[in-house]
Amino acid sequence: MLKKERQAYILHQVNLHNKVLSSLLSHEIRVSEDTIRRDLMELSDEGKLIKVHGGALSHSFNDVIYSGLSVYSQDQKKIIGQKAAALIQDGMFVLTSGGTTIIEMARALPPALRATFISGSIPAILEYMQHPNIEVVMIGDRVSKNAKITIGAEAIAKIKNINADLCFLGINSIDIKRGTTENDWEIAQLKKIMIDSSQKVVCCTISEKINTLQPIHICNLSDIDILITELPPDSPVLKPYIDAGIQVL
Amino acid sequence: MLKKERQAYILHQVNLHNKVLSSLLSHEIRVSEDTIRRDLMELSDEGKLIKVHGGALSHSFNDVIYSGLSVYSQDQKKIIGQKAAALIQDGMFVLTSGGTTIIEMARALPPALRATFISGSIPAILEYMQHPNIEVVMIGDRVSKNAKITIGAEAIAKIKNINADLCFLGINSIDIKRGTTENDWEIAQLKKIMIDSSQKVVCCTISEKINTLQPIHICNLSDIDILITELPPDSPVLKPYIDAGIQVL
DNA sequence: CATATTTATGCGTTTTCATGCCATATTTAT
DNA sequence: ATAAATATGGCATGAAAACGCATAAATATG
User: Fold this and answer.
1) How confident is the model at residue A61 (pLDDT cuts 50, 70, 90)?
2) Which residues form a coiled coil (chains A, B) (predicted)?
């Protein structure tokens, strides 16, 4: 069998099944795995497939995943994300909302971390999926196209059954008197339940949302354990929250 | 034998078999391999074939096998997507698996369509979310990073409670004897349940996957109502499936 | 017709290519 | 953490190609 023939066959298989395994091909074509690997390498160099450990993937296969997410990462949110990620330890069950700060948290997770992340937010789930070692659980229900999160009775019931170690909420408003507030009723319900279902509640927000209000109440300051912003904890604007018994990072 | 004769013979062989081996030709025509090589070189210079190490290939070989497939199969899938999308009517509840054909179906949905789509496939959900009028429901559970789909007991239980009008399955193997098969156990389970939970079952696949087998059984042909490929329904390869009582589009 | 000249072919030698094998990293899964 | 699978780079080997050269047949030339 000619080299080109073999490569054509491989390419055919890749396009057919979206993936090939070196070991399988080697056995099938009866050449050494070295040869297969060299072939895959060449085809990969020519851009005809994507080489991965153990075999190769078709290009169209991998395209799918990178489609939906183009969050412009602000430095402030990156800082918040890093502080938040540092709280998570191996083995934890972590419940999270959606939002850009949460996405940044997901990106800041150390690769070695082994934990379970539970969320109804599709962008968040997409980020968690990139991580090599964390277990990802999606809360199902009706999908809100705006918020890109699953909402509804089903989702709420599901979250109620969870007992998480940590809950990360990206919030849009926090106020010393009224606590955190929302402008979407369904999402407010979800966040309330998430708070109830977690041992510790962490709120993440950029500082400009501090001392702002929205119509729908989520929780009081007393329900919040940790508040994360991009500011250093001794910033004056955070003082009232520390005084209210919240740990500020 | 004259040189021209020899070259004509070689060319004939190339066009007939899509490939020739220098060694074989040399033996066949009883000239030295050098001569064959020189012939191949000349023919290659004239653009009549493609010289490779060990022999030569016909042009059509490269055209068909190489450049064709990746783009071609995308087009094929678009055709499938359109046929599939045409089956859906306002008000329907539609259960779908993941896979590239399903994605194309999602893209082919008419903007005015009002229906409810239920799936555990994240790429599929992302597509459905782009649509202005359809309701999207996500099946929750553990996320399989490979398949980008939610899998597990929870997901299965959820699907069991659904009674959908239509079920679209992107399948990787269908065979006249064994029906449809899978190589992932969890996904096979999901597909089985989806079939049980739907009035009508539609299988979508490019024709290359017809009459192929994989290890895990999903369902028999009798469970399938409609089969969609990129081929016209009267293609010979589809005949056995029509005879088996499947509606082929 | 004798003899250059071109063309086609084969042969040996040297290079290059394709492939397998192995020892050692690296990655992945358990 | 550990075992299994996979990757990497070097090396050996046989097969194919390239190159130069010799030869012989075909063709041209005076």
Assistant:
1) low
2) none
Lowest mean pLDDT among A73-87, A206-220, A235-249: A73-87
Round to whole Å and give the CA distance between A139 and A193: 13
Instruction: Give the minimum alpha-carbon distance from B159 to chain A in angstroms, rounded to a whole number.
Output: 11
Partners of B103 on chain A (C-beta within 8 Å) are 64
Instruction: Give pLDDT, residue A231.
Output: 87
Question: In chain A, what residues touch B120 (CB-CB under 8 Å)?
Answer: 140
- Domains of chain B are 3-57 (1.10.10.10), 69-248 (3.40.50.10470)
Any strand C atom closer than 7 Å to A38 CB: yes
Residues 177-216 of B with CB under 8 A from A: 206, 208-209
How close A126 comes to chain B (CA, Å)? Answer: 8
Tokens of residue A242, six digits: 């520390």
Task: Tell me if residue B62 falls in helix, strand or coil.
Answer: helix
pLDDT digits (tens, 9 = 90+) for B171-204: 988 999 889 988 788 888 899 999 999 999 999 9
B137/A140 Cβ within 8 A = yes
Distances (CA, A) of A151 to A120, A140, A142, A163, B139: 8, 8, 6, 19, 12
Which nucleotides on chain D have any atom < 7 A from a protein Cβ?
A: 5-10, 15-20
B150 touches chain A (CB under 8 A): yes
Q: Which nucleotides of C are covered by protein (CB under 7 A)?
A: 8-12, 17-22, 27-28
- pLDDT over 90 for what percent of chain A? 42
Sequence-ordered list of residues with C-beta below 8 angstroms from that of B106, at least 6 positions apart, any chain: B81, B96, B117, B124, B127, B128, B130, B131
Q: What is the pLDDT of residues B80-133, one digit of tens each?
A: 999 999 999 999 999 999 888 998 899 889 888 999 999 999 989 988 988 888
- Beta-bridged to residue A174, according to DSSP, are A180, A210
The burial class, CB within 10 Å (0-12 / 13-18 / 19+), for B68 is middle
Give me the B residues in range 11-40 that sit within 7 A (CB) of strand C.
30-32, 34-35, 38
Closest CA to B190 of B53, B95, B122: B95
Length of chain A: 249
pLDDT in tens, A149-184: 999 999 999 999 999 999 999 998 999 988 999 988
Integer Cα distance of A6 and B172 in angstroms? 22
SS3 of residue A229 by DSSP: coil
